[in-house]
Specification:
By secondary structure, the protein is an alpha/beta fold. The chain folds into 4 domains: 123 residues, Rossmann fold (3-Layer(aba) Sandwich), CATH 3.40.50; 119 residues, Transcription Regulator spoIIAA (2-Layer Sandwich), CATH 3.30.750.210; 84 residues, Transcription Regulator spoIIAA (2-Layer Sandwich); 55 residues, Nucleic acid-binding proteins (OB fold (Dihydrolipoamide Acetyltransferase, E2P), Beta Barrel), CATH 2.40.50.140. The chain is built from 13 helices and 21 strands. Strands 2-1-3-4-5-6 form a 6-stranded parallel sheet, sandwiched between helices. Helix 8 packs parallel to helix 9, helix 9 runs parallel beside helix 11 and helix 12 packs parallel to helix 13. The structure holds 5'-deoxyadenosine and iron/sulfur cluster. 5'-deoxyadenosine binds next to strand 15.
């Protein structure tokens, strides 16, 4: 028997990259690669990269710089760059860092096994096409592998919205929905392998419009209701959504589909209509507030999450004050906020930036408010009895860690058999990043 070759995958960026990394590792296991936990042990190092902000992109070049001595010591080690930086920069990566043997964009992972053979033969390989076929279709799966209780499942990819700041339409391409049958098949397979919670992924997941076998189009709500029929699947989530695609049946599902968790990530980016228009968001702040009110009507205990950009070109103090105002009105349970980062090739990159000190101080102010809201939402769980899906052992003896429906981490003393099961927990304490409770 030949020694297994060793693969190290490092993932940056969003959950879709996490999903893609898992699929690539599965596909390469068919080629005799087994995953290892560090670059030092590996024969093949694959960086699955993110291009969303400048910092994220630059990280890749510093990582490649760190890998250079390793490669100099052992020229047999192969190095690949996958994901969104690969898509955006292509050949330029090999030019800037000659240790790179392989560059593969996020739409061509099904060609990875063939590319790896070329790389093993000492060639360089590059593929950043946007082919028609489903990139997951030809990736062989290791169906025996047991899974943890929570999994991601990509149902939709790419984006046609063209927000003025965003690289996604360029790196991930046009919006494509995977067919219904393939998603249901993959979900059943995951559940058979031990998965109890599935998070449906897409850059614009609520725009899902996949076809069934009769060629009819299904929206996300119908897909969720069908997935909910899988008996041993306990929980469904989806991320990330655009306000303009939040259709009535999806809002209704929050009220009538027990398996759909009461948590929604619905980015608004800014509270100023002027900035929303400049961002090409195609909705106003009031549209967003009205939408939130309708979703909360369907599910009053819903916990909301969002994304914000401060310092978008042209943002004034008044615009920023309107963002703060919107945040106070919505009251988020969780949110991410970023300083605007000009991305080459996007429309906003041509516009004059806000002074960095101003953007910094706005970011601090916004983050302080969001942290306060997040803290209050988490502290508000104390005293409640919540269903918790246990995922793994905690650091302390006898303790398990799981998640509530609201996506808070919960620690509780519980028997190991409860891993992979939902049990009721009375919440006793709220710490910085987690809750502690006792089994009911
Ligand atoms: N600068 C700063 N933040 C950005 N995001 C996307 N593009 C940029 C950019 N150019 C943020 C948005 C988006 C999240 C994934 O990243 O808030 O919702
Ligand atoms: Fe980053 Fe966007 Fe690519 Fe995800 S899709 S890895 S967030 S650039």
């Amino acid at each position: 028997m030949t020694e297994p070759k060793k693969l190290f995958v490092k993932t940056y960026g969003c959950q879709m990259n996490v999903y893609d990394s898992e699929r690539m590792a599965e596909a390469l296991s068919g080629q005799g690669y087994e995953q290892v936990g560090s670059a030092e042990e590996a024969d093949m190092i694959l960086l699955n990269t993110c291009h969303i902000r400048e910092k994220a992109s630059e990280k890749i070049y510093s990582e490649l710089g760190r890998l250079k001595p390793l490669r100099d010591d052992n020229p047999n080690v192969k190095i690949g760059v996958a994901g969104c930086v690969a898509q955006a920069e292509g050949e330029e990566i090999m030019r800037r860092q000659p240790i790179v043997d392989l560059v593969v964009g996020p739409q061509t992972y099904h060609r990875l096994p063939a590319m790896m053979r070329a790389v093993e033969a000492g060639e360089k390989a590059l593929d950043t096409d946007f082919p028609e076929e489903d990139k997951f279709l030809h990736l062989p799966k290791d169906r025996r592998a047991k899974r943890g209780p929570c999994a991601f499942l990509t149902v939709q990819e790419g984006c046609d919205k063209f927000c003025a700041f965003c690289v996604v339409p360029y790196t991930r391409g046009a919006e494509v929905s995977r067919p219904v049958a393939r998603i249901l098949g993959e979900a059943r397979d995951l559940v058979e392998r031990g998965v109890r919670e599935i998070t449906l992924l897409g850059q614009n997941v609520n725009a899902y419009h996949g076809q069934d076998e009769d060629g009819r189009e299904w929206g996300l709500a119908r897909l969720i209701r069908e997935l909910a029929k899988i008996e041993d699947l306990a929980r469904i989530r989806f991320t990330t959504s655009h306000p303009n695609d939040m259709e009535d049946d999806l809002i209704a599902a929050f009220g009538d589909c027990d398996k759909l968790m009461p948590y929604l990530h619905l980015p608004v980016q800014s509270g100023s209509d002027r900035i929303l228009k400049a961002m090409n968001r195609k909705h106003t702040a009031q549209d967003y507030l009205d939408l939130i009110a309708r979703i909360r009507d369907a599910r009053p205990d819903l916990l909301l999450s969002g994304d914000f950009i401060v310092g978008f070109p042209g943002e004034t103090d008044e615009d920023f004050a309107q963002t703060m105002d919107l945040v106070r009105k919505v009251n988020y349970g969780q949110a991410y906020s970023f300083k605007y980062s000009a991305r080459p090739g996007t429309p906003a990159a041509e516009r004059a930036d806000v002074a960095p000190e101003i953007a910094d101080s706005r970011l601090q102010e916004l983050q302080a408010l969001l942290t306060e809201q997040q803290r209050a939402a988490q502290d508000g769980m104390v005293g409640r009895e919540l269903p918790v899906l246990f995922e793994k052992h905690g650091r302390q003896e006898g303790q398990l860690i799981g998640k509530s429906g609201y996506l808070h981490s919960v620690h509780a003393v519980a028997p190991a058999e409860l891993i992979g099961q939902v049990a009721m927990v009375r919440i006793i304490k709220s710490a910085t990043n987690s809750l502690t409770g006792a089994l009911v």
